[in-house]
Amino acid sequence: MPIMQVHLQTSAYSQEQVHHFLERASQVYAEVLESPIERVRIFIHDYPAEFIAVGGKVTSDSGVLAPFFEAFLMEGRPLSQQHAVLERITDVLVECFEADRSLIRGVCNMVSPERWGIAGKPAAAARAAELAARENLNR
Asked: What pTM was computed for the model?
Protein backbone atom coordinates (compact mmCIF):
# COMPACT_ATOMS: atom_id res chain seq x y z
CA MET A 1 0.00 0.00 0.00
CA PRO A 2 2.81 2.50 0.40
CA ILE A 3 1.58 5.50 -1.58
CA MET A 4 3.07 8.98 -1.45
CA GLN A 5 2.14 12.28 -3.04
CA VAL A 6 4.76 15.00 -3.23
CA HIS A 7 3.77 18.58 -3.99
CA LEU A 8 6.49 20.57 -5.77
CA GLN A 9 7.25 23.31 -8.20
CA THR A 10 9.11 20.89 -10.47
CA SER A 11 10.19 23.63 -12.88
CA ALA A 12 12.64 24.66 -10.14
CA TYR A 13 14.44 21.31 -10.50
CA SER A 14 16.11 19.40 -13.30
CA GLN A 15 14.55 16.29 -14.78
CA GLU A 16 17.55 14.38 -13.41
CA GLN A 17 16.84 15.64 -9.86
CA VAL A 18 13.18 14.63 -10.13
CA HIS A 19 14.09 11.20 -11.52
CA HIS A 20 16.67 10.65 -8.76
CA PHE A 21 14.16 11.75 -6.11
CA LEU A 22 11.50 9.30 -7.34
CA GLU A 23 13.93 6.39 -7.26
CA ARG A 24 15.57 7.30 -3.96
CA ALA A 25 12.27 8.08 -2.20
CA SER A 26 10.85 4.75 -3.40
CA GLN A 27 13.82 2.89 -1.95
CA VAL A 28 13.64 4.73 1.37
CA TYR A 29 9.87 4.34 1.68
CA ALA A 30 10.07 0.58 1.06
CA GLU A 31 12.98 0.25 3.49
CA VAL A 32 11.33 2.16 6.33
CA LEU A 33 8.04 0.29 5.95
CA GLU A 34 9.73 -3.08 5.35
CA SER A 35 7.58 -3.40 2.25
CA PRO A 36 8.40 -4.86 -1.16
CA ILE A 37 9.40 -2.00 -3.44
CA GLU A 38 6.94 -3.34 -6.05
CA ARG A 39 4.11 -2.03 -3.84
CA VAL A 40 5.49 1.52 -3.57
CA ARG A 41 3.87 4.29 -5.61
CA ILE A 42 5.08 7.89 -5.57
CA PHE A 43 3.29 10.64 -7.43
CA ILE A 44 4.58 14.15 -7.93
CA HIS A 45 2.05 16.94 -8.19
CA ASP A 46 3.60 19.77 -10.16
CA TYR A 47 2.51 23.34 -9.49
CA PRO A 48 3.45 26.55 -11.29
CA ALA A 49 5.22 29.04 -9.02
CA GLU A 50 2.17 31.30 -9.35
CA PHE A 51 0.03 28.66 -7.62
CA ILE A 52 2.14 28.30 -4.45
CA ALA A 53 2.39 30.60 -1.45
CA VAL A 54 4.84 30.16 1.42
CA GLY A 55 4.56 32.43 4.42
CA GLY A 56 1.98 34.57 2.64
CA LYS A 57 4.25 35.26 -0.35
CA VAL A 58 3.65 33.79 -3.79
CA THR A 59 6.60 31.66 -4.86
CA SER A 60 6.85 33.35 -8.26
CA ASP A 61 7.60 36.60 -6.39
CA SER A 62 9.63 35.25 -3.47
CA GLY A 63 11.45 32.30 -5.02
CA VAL A 64 10.92 30.34 -1.79
CA LEU A 65 10.52 26.60 -2.34
CA ALA A 66 8.80 24.52 0.33
CA PRO A 67 8.10 20.88 -0.60
CA PHE A 68 5.14 19.10 1.00
CA PHE A 69 4.51 15.35 1.03
CA GLU A 70 1.68 13.06 2.04
CA ALA A 71 2.42 9.45 2.95
CA PHE A 72 -0.54 7.08 2.94
CA LEU A 73 -0.10 4.19 5.34
CA MET A 74 -2.29 1.33 6.48
CA GLU A 75 -3.58 1.73 10.02
CA GLY A 76 -1.61 -0.34 12.46
CA ARG A 77 1.80 0.92 11.41
CA PRO A 78 3.81 1.72 14.53
CA LEU A 79 4.37 5.37 15.40
CA SER A 80 8.12 4.77 15.09
CA GLN A 81 7.67 3.89 11.38
CA GLN A 82 5.49 6.95 10.83
CA HIS A 83 8.15 9.16 12.40
CA ALA A 84 10.85 7.44 10.34
CA VAL A 85 8.88 8.15 7.13
CA LEU A 86 8.64 11.84 8.03
CA GLU A 87 12.36 12.05 8.83
CA ARG A 88 13.75 9.95 6.01
CA ILE A 89 11.62 11.42 3.21
CA THR A 90 12.59 14.88 4.44
CA ASP A 91 16.22 13.73 4.19
CA VAL A 92 15.65 12.61 0.58
CA LEU A 93 14.05 15.95 -0.35
CA VAL A 94 17.08 17.76 1.10
CA GLU A 95 19.49 15.38 -0.65
CA CYS A 96 17.85 15.44 -4.09
CA PHE A 97 16.58 19.01 -4.29
CA GLU A 98 18.85 20.83 -1.85
CA ALA A 99 15.63 21.89 -0.15
CA ASP A 100 15.73 23.95 3.01
CA ARG A 101 14.89 21.37 5.70
CA SER A 102 13.10 23.98 7.83
CA LEU A 103 10.58 24.62 5.01
CA ILE A 104 9.68 20.97 4.29
CA ARG A 105 6.37 19.67 5.62
CA GLY A 106 4.92 16.16 5.58
CA VAL A 107 2.02 14.16 6.94
CA CYS A 108 1.27 10.48 7.42
CA ASN A 109 -2.35 9.73 6.53
CA MET A 110 -3.54 6.51 8.11
CA VAL A 111 -6.10 4.48 6.15
CA SER A 112 -8.09 1.56 7.52
CA PRO A 113 -7.67 -1.74 5.65
CA GLU A 114 -11.43 -1.75 5.03
CA ARG A 115 -11.17 1.54 3.13
CA TRP A 116 -8.11 0.72 0.99
CA GLY A 117 -8.44 -1.22 -2.24
CA ILE A 118 -5.95 -3.70 -3.67
CA ALA A 119 -6.90 -5.13 -7.07
CA GLY A 120 -10.48 -4.06 -6.46
CA LYS A 121 -10.82 -5.71 -3.07
CA PRO A 122 -10.53 -4.20 0.40
CA ALA A 123 -7.03 -4.61 1.78
CA ALA A 124 -8.60 -6.16 4.86
CA ALA A 125 -9.52 -9.15 2.69
CA ALA A 126 -6.64 -9.03 0.21
CA ARG A 127 -3.94 -8.91 2.86
CA ALA A 128 -5.66 -10.42 5.92
CA ALA A 129 -2.87 -12.90 6.67
CA GLU A 130 -0.13 -10.31 6.17
CA LEU A 131 -1.85 -7.78 8.43
CA ALA A 132 -2.33 -10.38 11.16
CA ALA A 133 1.36 -11.31 11.05
CA ARG A 134 2.37 -7.64 11.22
CA GLU A 135 0.04 -7.05 14.19
CA ASN A 136 1.59 -10.00 16.04
CA LEU A 137 5.06 -8.52 15.51
CA ASN A 138 3.97 -5.21 17.03
CA ARG A 139 2.72 -6.78 20.25
From this structure: 0.87
